[in-house]
Amino acid sequence: MRDALLTVRDLKIYYRTLYGYVKAVDGVAFELRDGEVLGIAGESGCGKSTLGNGLVLLKPPMKYVGGEAILDGKNIMALSQKEIKRIRYEKISIIPQYAMDALNPTKKIRQIVDDLLREHNSSFEEKRELIEERLAIVNLSKKVLNMYPIELSGGMKQRLVMVISTLMNPDVLVADEITSALDVSTQRSVVQMLYEMKEKKAMKSIIFITHDLAVLYQIADRIMVMYAGKVAEIGPTEEMVRNPLHPYTKMLLASLPKIGVRFVNERLKGIPGYPPNLLNIGPGCRFRERCPKAFAKCEQDPPIFDLNGRKVSCWLFERGDER
Amino acid sequence: MSFLVVQNLTKEYPLGLLGKEKLKAVDDVSFEIERSKIVSLIGESGSGKTTIGKLVLRLLKPTSGRIVFDGKDVFSLRKEELRDYYRRVQGVFQDPFSSFNPIYKIDRVFDMVFEEFLPEVKASERKARIEQVLVSVGLNPSQILGKYPHQLSGGQLQRILIARILLLDVELLVADEIISMLDASTRVDVLNLLGDLKKRGMSVIFITHDLSLGYYISDEALIMYRGSIVEMGDTEKVFRNPVHPYTRMLLESVPEVGKKWDLRERFTPELIGGDSASCKYYDRCPIRERHCRTAHLQMVEVEENHKVLCLKAGA
Ligand SMILES: Nc1ncnc2c1ncn2[C@@H]1O[C@H](COP(=O)(O)OP(=O)(O)O)[C@@H](O)[C@H]1O
Ligand SMILES: Nc1ncnc2c1ncn2[C@@H]1O[C@H](COP(=O)(O)OP(=O)(O)O)[C@@H](O)[C@H]1O
Ligand SMILES: [Mg+2]
Ligand SMILES: [Mg+2]
What tens digit of pLDDT does each residue of A257-297 get? Predict the structure, then answer.
């Protein structure tokens, strides 16, 4: 097995509000291995962005409540401002959700890149060669450097953001919903180009976040499914889609459209009900109210059980096999 | 007989400050919809889907062409006829939050339907009717009525808008990306709801950029590219036997669990060029030939109920 680059244990990141804490990431644990793409899936509001942003850009009203995230021997959740500045972008970088719409519209791309690099003691001129090389990987011409963000299409902006956020060759890149606002054909090119960037060592490992399991399937070596701020299940991609363990993963996979299944001959089924409100949420499995297999034990918090490399947080697996 | 007929519909938007140049958002589009059918309108963003939806709802005027509903030209309807049209044809849009006024309770959406279209229904009956339609879209009335929009989820609001359609008992629904904001686990329920409504006699123009959703729910599919329909017909035929290179490219890009893409392949989708060639897909087309630049394009039937706008179709 490859070494762990990032090890997250019992991580808790809450939002402080007037009414109490929104427990958006509540006891999450996983490893990111050297060279892998770890996919994070789950419905909107389950805490994917909170996890990604919390690891890289923690700021109020987000509050680090407990646990750890070890990168290079250090808990990156508990660093001084000075230390954080050094590892952020250089060791662990992020493409936040909606980043492509957040590019400064009044500046040319070259200026945007230069500003960012100067914050990290480098400059556009110093990195010129690398920048041009990377633009070529994502099929953008050098001309974009003299353009304003508004002159680029959505797919072009997203590919540009992929280049900008990895110029320091970080160990870890968190990519949050980078395909979600794009057309299918553009989605595919973005995924393929990100893969090529990794092959060419623009980053070592990727945490790829998306609510779209079908996209995740294309690029992830392993998948972590989250539900309501917790880990539901972690496993190798192919094994997980063939043989999902957690009842939530099973129902989620069954709800996806596939070629061959049409309303006129076969009905897909959704998951009845809604995820719980995470504000001041109490103990117990958070899926229990929607779960067809819930039983008395589910009133207690399930730990994450380890079944030969597959991990699942469900009482059905307390004794290893499914009850 | 088709009850909605769209004939040579064209819509141009003025471009630039002076508006001298024009953008053809919808370019000579023709199709028909029968009763009790779901027709999906599929294409990348900017291909003109929403513009067609708005034209059908009379929210925009066409530059040329006609839309005929139940034998009457939609743009000639006046007063009573127009009110009748909106009793029978309604739209639901992508962002459910924008359809609700945040300062009013949800109930107001329904009250307005009664005031505007169903004044004859007695006040005493109204509550029961509202509760009935809410239940039939899978909502619990006690969790919905009396609430404000921000207290509900996007999926719940989207269902409320469909419940409103049920109250009116509309005959044609224009559904513009209504489930793209919903999660996988709730969007199939909304899709199935549309399917059930179809069985009860309603038709739907189902606008989506998501091919797999269009495939699942619709009877017929219209594939749009830059304002034109490039392929149309029976959904099963269009998806199982795509002929236009654009439809093929779209289908190859649909991600599906269990079918892995080759990540090492180079895939370059967007080479948007000028409008000079007579075929709009010319610049991106892998099978283009010289004469595709200049020859006149016409829809050709490749099999029964399956047409394509491509010179190389059937060749
Ligand atoms: N600034 C905030 N204040 C309070 N709650 C928040 C804030 N941002 C997000 N949340 C809540 O945290 C939870 C997780 O949100 P998020 O991480 O964005 O989910 P995802 O990315 O999986 O859609 C949700 O319940 C959301 O409402
Ligand atoms: N009000 C408008 N003024 C000018 N151009 C518009 C307007 N609305 C849409 N367009 C343009 O028309 C084309 C089709 O848009 P639209 O119908 O919204 O496509 P779709 O719904 O398929 O994304 C796009 O190029 C869009 O930019
Ligand atoms: Mg998110
Ligand atoms: Mg649209």
Answer: 887 899 999 999 999 888 899 999 999 999 999 999 999 99
Please tell me the distance in Å from B100's CA to the nearest CA on chain A: 21
Closest CA relative to residue B58, chosen from B19, B23, B6, B96: B6
| Distance in angstroms (rounded) separating the CA atoms of residues B17 and B21 | 9
Does residue A145 lie within any of the structural domains? no
Domain that holds residue A60: 4-91+170-245
Chain B partners of A262 at a C-beta cutoff of 8 Å? 215-217, 235-236
> Domains in chain B and their CATH numbers?
2-99+168-240 (3.40.50.300), 244-315 (no CATH)
Which pLDDT tens digit goes with each residue over B146-160?
999 988 877 788 889
Structure tokens at A215: 């996209």
Residues in chain B, how many?
A: 315
- Contact assessment for residue A229 and residue A54, using Cβ atoms and an 8 Å cutoff: no
At residue B94, the pLDDT reads: 80
Q: Above 80 in pLDDT, residue B182?
A: no
Q: What is the pLDDT of chain A when averaged over all its residues?
A: 94
> For residue A117, is it within any domain?
no
Flag whether A207 is in a domain. Answer: yes
* A12 CB-side CA count, 13 A: 12
Which of B137, B159, B183 is the best residue to mutate to test the A interface, defined by the most A CB atoms within 10 Å of its own CB?
B183
Closest CA to B153 of B106, B113, B200, B115: B106
Total count of domains within chain A: 1
